[in-house]
Amino acid sequence: MTTPYPYSLSIAPMMDWTDRHYRYFMRQLTRRTLLYTEMITTGAILHGDKARHLDFSELEHPLALQLGGDDPKALAECAIIAETWGYDEVNLNVGCPSDRVQNGNFGACLMAQPELVRDCVQAMRESTTLPITVKHRIGIDTLDSYEDMAHFVEVVAAARPAKFTVHARIAWLKGLSPKENRTVPPLRYNDIYRLKQNFPELMIELNGGVVTLADVQQHLTQVDAVMLGRAAYQNPYLFAGVDGQMYGDTCEVRSRHEVVLAMLPYIDAMLEKGVYLSSVSRHMLHLFAGQPGAKAWKRHISENAHKAGADTGVLLDALAKVPEHVQYARGKLSSDVYSPA
């Protein structure tokens, strides 16, 4: 495929899910997959607590900041901040269908304003050396034909974004909830394949309904990159070994037990900063998905991680309920110091 864009696999930005704790957890499984923040509005960055919204660990690279907004000037200012903060990419959200996002005139409703999206991308590109990318749907409401999407892409492409990530469902802005918009509209992969065929010079990434690495490999015969969403959260161990399969890396693949142990220094550091155990452990509940002991693992963490004073002992006790438990003496990793950003 064309273009030197380096990431053929990514994990989608997902509200309430892809926070810094989830991203650090996923870095125990893959170092090469591109990760995204949750969507952050320009207002939250420009007028809110920047550190709370933007801080991350150096281990999280490569990492893209996803922005929500419709003002080219504000987006450009945020792109400058993203570069200063050390992000690897800036992505514009043109796919979220929630009422709150629509009321702010950003997200999926911007597909009806391709010239504005073009101007937003252009403003960001002129303000930073970071790659600027766009994540959008194949359509919205009455703008639901392939021709409508192709027109949107053609207009926005004039600003030369580094990548178009296309969710293979339209967004029904009236009549469906955000949750329903992730499942009810039918998947139309052929429209994305056709988009790549008609715009071979553009980097096209496919998103939506991808659940296995076999799916990924099949789509990569038609497009440049693939993004996984819910499957990456609900079956995180799917990513163990992808660095070798996708990029030829020879690093050793960690077992699920080793992933838990590798997280303990980080969790200890977060606890010292006042973060609750449940804020981190909730992202680890599906680590043993489909394995013997998975229910006991999830139940023990769910029942105990939220309690006052809960620490990594909760995870060790939960791990002991999973077959083939790797024995671990408390303090074993005390020399493995985590250095937070």
Summary?
By secondary structure, the chain is an alpha/beta fold.
How far is the N terminus from the C terminus? 36 Å
Shape: globular
- The overall average pLDDT, rounded, is 92
Largest sheet: 9 strands, parallel
Q: How would you explain this protein's 3D organization?
A:
There is one protein chain. With 341 residues, this protein is an alpha/beta fold. The protein is 40% helix and 11% strand. The chain has helices spanning 20-26, 42-47, 50-54, 72-85, 99-103, 114-127, 146-157, 178-181, 189-198, 213-219, 230-234, 242-247, 256-272, 277-281, 294-304, 313-319, and strands at 9-11, 35-36, 40-41, 63-68, 89-94, 132-137, 163-167, 204-207, 225-228. Strands 1, 2, 3, 4, 5, 6, 7, 8 and 9 form a nine-stranded parallel beta sheet that branches. Helix 7 (146-157) links the parallel strand 6 and strand 7. Helix 6 (114-127) runs parallel beside helix 7 (146-157). It starts with 8 loop residues before the first strand and ends in a 22-residue tail after the last helix. The model is unreliable at 325-341 (pLDDT under 50).
Which characteristics define this entry?
341 residues, alpha/beta, 9-stranded parallel sheet, 9 strands, 40% helix, disordered C terminus
